[in-house]
Amino acid sequence: xxxxxxxxxxxxxxxxxxxxxxxxxxxxxxxxxxxxxxxxxxxxxxxxxxxxxxxxxxxxxxxxxxxxxxxxxxxxxxxxxxxxxxxxxxxxxxxxxxxxxxxxxxxxxxxxxxxxxxxxxxxxxxxxxxxxxxxxxxxxxxxxxxxxxxxxxxxxxxxxxxxxxxxxxxxxxxxxxxxxxxxxxxxxxxxxxxxxxxxxxxxxxxxxxxxxxxxxxxxxxxxxxxxxxxxxxxxxxxxxxxxxxxxxxxxxxxxxxxxxxxxxxxxxxxxxxxxxxxxxxxxxxxxxxxxxxxxxxxxxxxxxxxxxxxxxxxxxxxxxxxxxxxxxxxxxxxxxxxxxxxxxxxxxxxxxxxxxxxxxxxxxxxxxxxxxxxxxxxxxxxxxxxxxxxxxxxxxxxxxxxxxxxxxxxxxxxxxxxxxxxxxxx
Length: 426
Ligand code: PLP
Description:
Elements: H1 3-13, E1 35-39, E2 42-45, E3 50-53, H2 68-79, H3 89-101, E4 107-111, H4 114-129, E5 133-137, H5 155-158, H6 169-172, E6 175-178, H7 183-193, E7 197-202, H8 218-229, E8 232-236, H9 248-253, E9 259-262, E10 273-277, H10 279-282, H11 301-314, H12 319-341, E11 346-350, E12 353-357, H13 366-370, H14 374-386, E13 389-390, E14 399-400, H15 407-425
Parallel strand pairs: 3-13, 5-6, 5-7, 7-8, 8-9
Antiparallel strand pairs: 1-2, 2-3, 4-10, 9-10, 11-12, 12-14
Bound molecules: pyridoxal-5'-phosphate.
């Protein structure tokens, strides 16, 4: 069965042929390939073509695909059973690991996805403050909960439906939106409605409108604003947690949120999310407290084994320094090639995540990100794909490196980019 045949079958059976929108290649055009196998920095499709992968399963695969240490942990766990419905020791080890490594987390609750984590964090913030409104940022994506599909990033931005049909206005009206990296706008909103705001949720490095780091002092400013107005600061570190640094963006920028959401890397490739924070907040979650949240498969033993093994790998000395250095090398190389080809281009790199913009930089805002040349990006994407390099199939997604990407992989990527830039410009 080849890629095209599989996609035709899939289109008849699943909306858009996929189980998550951006996978369908709609914004870049063409058809997705179907992966048969993944190892290290590479994916192989069902036709045997190899791709250097900069998507990394959308973030989790920070040590590369099918890492033997993670695989062995999963194989060991599977022998003892797939799910118990009682507490299991791996959950305790996972909680200990997250509390030790993430500065602001005293207690944690495991869930099954990033979406679940952010939905629960918002409920907790509303329950704890007795307030209803939340603040999010244009172009930030926090999963597909109703409260967040208002001026959202990722697939919602890619497909130009920033607020989804099906989100009742009663829910959307409780979500206030702000421009990213604009502290004055946040100050003005809080001055007006601060007393009604339960929480402000932010991707501390935005990764769903391409990749945009916070400007100097921005996260600190938001921290002060939330404290001043009695609102909770939630860092959505589903993407940035164990990706931009050990301990996440809060460790990198030295800002303590009240609540943190996690996902992706902490599951090692299995469906896992988590939320955690200050003890007196987390103790309000059932059954310790009255705010309800539950999950049949939460803390699943096989998923915990995968996540714990992945978290062991990222704690190896020098892991993030090496990852960040290689990510910078890729971005600097791409910048040189784009400049040589006369293509308007800029990049951001934070730890093992990066953004490529077909616009002169630095790109600091949602408005600038959406003004980048998407036609040029799409041509570049396909130029890279046909040369065996898989970038995220949207101009509004961050890219990811893993520790399995070698200097040779980066050199091969740059060689492909040299031709792809020329082709895109033509
Ligand atoms: N929050 C952020 C910052 C994300 O990037 C994502 C997914 O990409 C989510 C939440 C949602 O996570 P999930 O897709 O696991 O539900």
